[in-house]
């Protein structure tokens, strides 16, 4: 995706570690999720996040050191926290609880990263899943409930899919390796 195809005027430029490398990232300034999470100083949101994880903040899972979310889950197994949009409570929507955890620790999650002259969509990866050989991945992955910020990593969407388990992850790993090799041949990356 070329940078000219995406309007970055609603983002501020910053730097972050993405896929293990320091790179330029773009953080959204004015979207509903950002506005809601900017109100993280609102004690009720912070209190609700703590209540959803408080058992594991005190005693993490002994096998994985994960802080598991004990609140509601979406259909894919990720923790959800309900957030009001703006100042009034007339509209409410849900955000991934791990996104709230990241925001509390690091600030708003960047949306895009500029890597090798191309913009890449960013997501948070639960790195604890990749370290657990017994985890089958997918919607049954127990690590999707993890709120431990030390287990979360900012990665490109392509990297996240490539790290996945199953046929889709294996295919994505092959495509990513081929793409990296081709970029090196063209002198576009190290």
Can you walk through the features of this model?
By secondary structure, the chain is α+β, with helices and mostly antiparallel strands. It has one domain. The chain is 33% helix and 23% strand. It is built from 6 helices and 7 strands, in the order ββααββαββαβαα. It has helices spanning 32-38, 43-58, 97-106, 127-130, 157-163, 167-185; strands spanning 11-18, 21-28, 80-84, 92-96, 112-115, 118-126, 152-156. The strands form 2 sheets. It has a 5-stranded antiparallel sheet with strand order 1-2-5-6-7. A two-stranded antiparallel ribbon has the order 3-4. A hairpin with a 2-residue loop joins β5 and β6. α5 (157-163) crosses α6 (167-185). The protein is globular. The model has no long low-confidence stretch (mean pLDDT 77).
Helix content: 25-40%
> If strands are numbered along the chain, what order do they take across the biggest sheet?
1-2-5-6-7
What are the segments in which pLDDT stays under 50 over at least 5 consecutive residues?
A: none
* Envelope shape: globular
Amino-to-carboxy terminus distance: 20 Å
Query: Helix-strand pattern, N to C?
Result: EEHHEEHEEHEHH
GO molecular function: endonuclease activity
Keywords: Endonuclease, Hydrolase, Nuclease
Protein name: HNH endonuclease
Short structural description:
With 190 residues, the chain is α+β, with helices and mostly antiparallel strands.
Write the layout of secondary structure elements.
Blueprint: E1 11-18, E2 21-28, H1 32-38, H2 43-58, E3 80-84, E4 92-96, H3 97-106, E5 112-115, E6 118-126, H4 127-130, E7 152-156, H5 157-163, H6 167-185
Antiparallel strand pairs: 1-2, 2-5, 3-4, 5-6, 6-7
